[in-house]
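Suppose a colleague, Dr. K., hands you the sequence of a protein chain of 290 amino acids and asks what its three-dimensional shape might be. Before reaching for any lab equipment, you can write down a predicted structure in token form. Begin with the sequence itself:
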Amino acid sequence: MRKKINIADILLIAIILLWALIIILPFFNVVVISFTTNKEYLMRPLLLFPREPTLKNYMDLFEDGRVLIGYGTTLQILLFGLPVNLFLTTSFAYGLSRKGYPGRKPIFYFVLVTMLFNGGIIPMYLLMMKLGLTDSLGSVVLAYGINTFYMIIMRNFFSGLPDALIESAKIDGAGEWTILLRIILPLSMPIIATITLFYTVDRWNEWFNAMIFIKSPNLQPLQLVLRSIVLESQLLDKISAEGSVVIDQQRFANGMKMAAVMVTMLPIMCVFPFLQKHFAKGVLVGAIKS
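The predicted structure, expressed as tokens, is then:
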């Protein structure tokens, strides 16, 4: 039977559409400005479609050279940091999910404390300096090993798997690593995909640890490069408004800034749809049991 649409349904649909419009319009405006000339932007700051679309903002951005350096550095952090995060989180979550693991509850509570308290920036910097990792990508990779919240989600997922699987594997002579790699992980693809997406976004957006530990310009990750471009564009706008310095009018500061935002977001936007179905299932299942 066809369901009747009442006033409440119409009101709900209208609210959802309005909320979606509020979310989409600013993002769409960023995309449009990145393809807009300086002259057209000064005439109409709020654009829906550029009358004379141009790629000059992107060309100026890549001519700068820092974006390519940022891409290379961020990809290296992602390449080396993501496996470290997944290995530490998966192995630790599996150990805490095992009911026969000695000291499981005290260790779990001790880990929970780290969500509220930590040693701070200065001890971390002194540690990296002692290890000789300052001004290197190793400091950024090793400064962030396990996210406690992600580990708890994975632990809850592992705890929900049947104990009979592990017991039968032990009867066949399998060790803990064999059980984890050949039984647990193949059954945990939804949560693995979810945590992988979480850590990928974290590593892609890495900037704070890089700002603390890295000083070399040729090791700046993409987010720090974007920060520099945004700050420079704001400075150029301020100087241009005061009229104290003659600025190269061939470059559109806001356009370059929006182009940098698009270049930074695009890779994650391309990856997310492929993991979306695993992402939704993994979060739901991993959050049910505590």
